[in-house]
Every structure is written in structure tokens, then in C-alpha cells.
Amino acid sequence: MRQARELALFASIGEEEMRRELKQWMAEGRIFLVEHEGAEYFPLYALDAGARYRPYPAVKEIISIFGENLSVWGIASWFSGLNSFLDDQRPLDLLDKDPDWVVEAARDAMDDMTHVDEEAVRQSLDDVAHGRTRPANEVFSEIRRKHGIEGTR
Questions:
Q1: Are 26 and 18 in contact (CB under 8 A)?
Q2: Which residues are CB-contacts of 14 (< 8 A; sequence separation ≥ 6)?
Q3: Residue 56 to residues 96, 106, 114, 121, 148: CA-CA distances in angstroms?
Q4: pLDDT reported for residue 131
Q5: Which H helix or E strand runs over 126?
Q6: What confidence score (pLDDT) does residue 50 get?
Q7: Average pLDDT of the chain to the nearest whole number
Q8: Which partner for 105 in 16, 30, 85, 153 could form a disulfide, CB atoms 3.0-4.6 Å apart?
Q9: Beta pairing partners, 48
Q10: What are the tens digits of pLDDT across the range 55-73?
Q11: Strand pairing class (47-48; 34-36)
């Protein structure tokens, strides 16, 4: 993550020009920023060095896929984390090599986030409606077992 002045140096343009471009790209949903201790940081990995440090087109699509479901910190974390859909590679390392695969991984992650526990929620609602209750730790254990995350909390 880099500040605008650093990105301007990489792109060999003035800082004010870089700030204008970043502002435009933000408005267009082509890049995101995270704020930390009053400073704004932009993902260097989202910018294509071969295209004068313009955002990779896939980044806009990924931001759109995650929409309001992930915070900017969540999106940054997703890009930097190992991803099983991408054969345990980081999405940020593949933006320039295989952007379509990274977009597919974002869709897969979004599907997991939105559908992963629908069945468990339906079952819980049905249990409550019929006066059946189960301890929360039993429900969570079942969900962890179902999704292959046994033993984690």
C-alpha cells in the first residue's frame, strides 16, 4: 500500500496529477484506498506498471463483485491472502498474469460469503419454529465440520 506521492514517483508524474487521477479512479470504482492514522494508502498491486500505473481492469470488476459486502480493509485482505481457488496463490500476484482467474476467485469468494450458511440458517429457523433448540456450540461445530474448518474458532 502506497500513498499518492509515492505512486506519483512510480508513474513519473506530479503528485497533484496523481491525486486527481486517484480521485477519478475512486469515483469510477477502479481502485480503493484504506485510511490509517489519517493517511490514505492505495494498493500498488492494483496498478499496471506497464500501463503507466493505471488500474488493472479486473480491479474494478472485483470491487464491484464485493460491493458493500466487504470493507476496503476486507478487500485489501482478500487480495493479499492465499486463496485456495487460485491454487494457494495470492490474488495480487496474479492480476497481471491471469486477471480473469482472479475475477473468478472473487466471484467464488462472494458466493461462499452469501450462500455458505443458508442451509444452517434455514434449519435453525425451522428448529425454533418447532420448539427444537440446540446449543450454539453444537451448531457452530456442525458448520465448521461442513465447511472443512474443523478445530478452528
A1: no
A2: 8
A3: 8, 15, 26, 38, 33
A4: 73
A5: helix 118-129
A6: 93
A7: 86
A8: 85
A9: 54
A10: 999 999 999 999 888 889 9
A11: unpaired
Q: Which amino acid is at 147?
A: H
Spatial separation of the C-alpha atoms in residues 6 and 41, rounded to whole Å: 10
Cα distances (angstroms) measured from residue 50 to each of 11, 96, 151: 10, 10, 44
Residue-wise DSSP of 91-114: HHHHTTT-HHHHHHHHHHHHHHHH
Q: Which three cell numbers stand for residue 53?
A: 500505473
pLDDT in tens, 41-59: 999 999 999 999 999 999 9
Which set of grid coordinates corresponds to residue 76? 485489501
Task: Return the DSSP state at 66.
Answer: H
* pTM of this structure: 0.71
Class of residue 18 by CB neighbours under 10 A (exposed 0-12, middle 13-18, buried 19+) = buried
Q: What cell numbers appear for 128 in the block?
A: 425454533
Rounded to an integer, what distance in angstroms lies between the CA atom of residue 8 and that of residue 11? 5
3-state secondary structure 9-34: HHHCCCHHHHHHHHHHHHHCCCCCCE
CA distance 75 to 133: 36
Q: Which residues pair with 39 in a beta bridge?
A: 36
